[in-house]
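Quarterly update from the structural biology core.
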Amino acid sequence: MQHGLPVAVVCTGHQPFEPVQGAVLITTSRMDAVEIDVAARTARTGAGAVWQQVVDAAAPAGLAPLNGSSAKVGVTGYVLGGGLSPTLGRTYGWAADHVRAIEIVTADGELRRVTATAEPELFWAVRGAKGNFGVVTAMEIDLFPVSTYFGGGLFYAGEHTEAVLRAYREWITTAPDELSSSVALLRLPPSAEVPAPLRGRLAVHVRVCFLGPAVEGERLVAPLRALAPTIIDTVMPTPYRAFASVHQDPVDPVPLRMRNALLTGLTDEVVDALVAFGGPGSGCGLTVLEVRHLGAALARPAAVPSAVDARDAGVSVWGAAIGPAEATAPAIAQLDRLITRLRPWSTGRRYLNFMSGADGAECAYTAQTYQRLRTVKRAYDPGNVFRLNNHNIPPA
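Predicted structure, tokenized:
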């Protein structure tokens, strides 16, 4: 701090940011301790912990966290960005809303333990604005009584894109809160890491996680299974430890660029735009284009308010291209045009964790929330020391 150098913090490096010179990089990957309090239904997670560690530690007690889709994503950055769980989100809400305490080193070098009653403005801001206010060294997060789920993925050939998207649009209108789901258009490479039936082709992947009885899950999924032949069907009763099998994200680091939009709902017009953009013969250069169902608990106010500003969205539309910036630029330009086309159905905001490093933070918040975040930034980091690797919020 004495030398005035900006500070960047990284755990897994799951999300790429631009390289910089003349800065301090703090790597937290070795601070990966996880402690479970069964009676309190909480986990204390070190700054370097990843989701599989927390899930494995909580599973013997029949508990689970509000994790992301990947086993290897860092807990801290995910939660601080809001924490949209694709498996438990609609049932229990945003992960940022279920943080009990945060231990953070602020720009003045002080280690603070912040809670709803101890420095509440900082506690509000950190939960939803990532690493703008300091280096988080540990968190205490809620756990939930989940040990199994009914779910997995349904893969269809690309020629069924429109049929699947239209069926999915109808399907989610009656989805219970216990059902979290998404649908993605995947353009998969012809590599050995990809299951043979999916290599080098366009596939449609419906992802499902239902927390009710398996017999009810079978009933819910039956219309999707009937609408077209599936290439692969992995939907079944599953131990929660295998949560990563729902999305089947890459297990090795990959460079990717991404954009997203939060929409009020999945209308027929939105489906038309998605099919035209990403369907067969479209020339779409994205690796993945996803629609994720929101609402239910994700729409409810937090018991302890946080800076998460996405509660009025019905779905998110997210796309990503894998490769270095110069190689993915044409695909990202295509995605920007799609997001512009979807503007009539947009909430006007984006989800922070689905934004690439160069995107400005202001598009994730209402004007009121963003100004409040800038005020907190001025109080705790007036010199904007923490301005790298974090969708920067400058001091007011």
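The mean pLDDT is 94.
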